[in-house]
């Protein structure tokens, strides 16, 4: 039902409802600019080979096996058949085991998204029923299955006309946030600083539109390749202006648009001070002749 090739085919099951589905990669890096390794002197492309670290001889593909290091350069060799034998049996069933509210899972556990779509027209009714049930209840299903020779936990959510299945990282794969933030000390933030920061956030609220975010690195690579191909001078990147404020409160005020108003007040005060000084001088100059007449 889709032009792309399914990365996995099986059955999606929620309760007693089931249908044949395919998983299709939701993200792709195929559009990125890629480079090959080239011999600079000949212009020929290089090929990668595996070399025995002791004999320095090339090892052919059929002689390459996986190995686990036990220490001191010793390895336990595992052949592909042994590896396949320990992978849990898969009945190609993506079955919902539990339902949780959307947004309950910390997105640090999110791994890779896949589009889920029915592979046969006959399964459309069952697929639509499951999709709409997930959508109207704002529920997310948690399922487990074997994907690409690994047991994976999968999050299943309704998405537009289809369903998205997101593989999740296991707990042991996610670093503890306590470890990452252990050196962040507790400090008391001034009320004005917090109010200014909240004001800045409030004035810049918006919606996420992925089309408005460009990959500047890819754009720069494309411009570089184009210039080299046409024999033109290489493009020079625009310098980035980086502010280095010494005062956090001052930086927040400027970000909140209070820079101009704070600058105007001192100027107005200086101007008034100048007028007062002029008036006092003229008064003194008029007073002197009057004192002479009085004498």
From TrEMBL:
Protein name stated in the entry: Non-homologous end joining protein Ku
Entry similarity comment: Belongs to the prokaryotic Ku family.
Listed Basic residues bias regions: 283-295
Domain Ku positions: 56-185
SUBUNIT field: Homodimer. Interacts with LigD.
Superkingdom of source: Bacteria
Keyword DNA repair: yes
Function: With LigD forms a non-homologous end joining (NHEJ) DNA repair enzyme, which repairs dsDNA breaks with reduced fidelity. Binds linear dsDNA with 5'- and 3'- overhangs but not closed circular dsDNA nor ssDNA. Recruits and stimulates the ligase activity of LigD.
BP-aspect Gene Ontology terms: DNA recombination; double-strand break repair via nonhomologous end joining
NCBIfam families associated with the record: Ku_bact
Gene that this sequence comes from: ku
Segments of skewed composition (Basic and acidic residues): 250-266
A single GO molecular function term of this UniProt record: double-stranded DNA binding
């Amino acid at each position: 039902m889709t032009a792309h090739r399914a990365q996995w085919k099986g059955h999606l099951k929620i309760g007693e409802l089931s249908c044949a589905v395919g998983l299709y990669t939701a993200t792709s890096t195929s559009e990125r600019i890629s480079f090959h390794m080239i011999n600079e002197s000949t212009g020929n492309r290089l090929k990668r080979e595996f070399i025995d670290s002791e004999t320095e001889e090339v090892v052919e593909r059929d002689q390459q096996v996986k190995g686990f290091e036990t220490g001191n350069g010793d390895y336990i060799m595992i052949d592909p058949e042994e590896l396949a034998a320990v992978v849990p049996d898969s009945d190609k069933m993506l079955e919902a085991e539990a339902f949780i509210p959307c947004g309950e899972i910390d997105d640090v556990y999110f791994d890779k998204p896949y589009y889920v779509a029915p592979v046969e027209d006959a399964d459309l009714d069952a697929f639509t029923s499951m999709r709409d049930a997930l959508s109207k209840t704002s529920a997310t299903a948690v399922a487990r299955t074997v994907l690409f020779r690994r047991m994976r936990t999968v999050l299943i959510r309704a998405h537009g006309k289809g369903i998205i299945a997101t593989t999740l990282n296991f707990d042991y794969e996610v670093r503890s946030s306590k470890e990452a933030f252990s050196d962040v000390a507790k400090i008391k933030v001034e009320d004005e600083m917090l109010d200014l920061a909240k004001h800045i956030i409030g004035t810049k609220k918006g919606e996420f539109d992925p089309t408005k975010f460009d990959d500047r690195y890819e754009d720069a690579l494309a411009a570089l390749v184009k210039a080299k191909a046409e024999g033109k001078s290489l493009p020079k990147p625009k310098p980035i202006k980086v502010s280095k404020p010494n005062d956090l409160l001052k930086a927040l005020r400027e970000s909140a648009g209070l820079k101009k108003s704070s600058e105007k007040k001192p100027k107005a005060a200086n101007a008034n001070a100048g007028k007062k000084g002029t008036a006092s001088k003229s008064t003194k100059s008029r007073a002197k002749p009057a004192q002479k007449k009085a004498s």
